[in-house]
Amino acid sequence: MKFHRIPRDFNMRKLWxxxxxxxxxxxxxxxxxxxxxxxxxxxxxxxxxxxxxxKSAVPSEFDFPAHLKKEPRHRRVLKRKHGESNSKATEQTxxxxxxxxxxxxxxxxxx
Length: 111
Fold this sequence. Notes:
Layout lengths: L2 E3 L4 H11 L11 E3 L8 E3 L5 E3 L34 H6 L18
Antiparallel strand pairs: 1-2, 3-4
């Protein structure tokens, strides 16, 4: 089992301590957290072939009691209207409504 020291970097330390969710908890330079609180994606293989924790990893695997668990956020999925495309013309005209076609002979019509 691997253990990881809480980072010294202020911002990363803050993220880790927030993730741990312990009230009135003060960490020291020797405070560690068990590797089971990290996902496999939090690790990378170093030049020596060892699995090491990524610098950007934050512990996320906890078995909190029900009253401390966060509700998963439900994301709304936006769908395109039927017939809409990614073409440049659609993007440019979407704010102005209908597009009037210019006469084929190149003459411009003034309103």
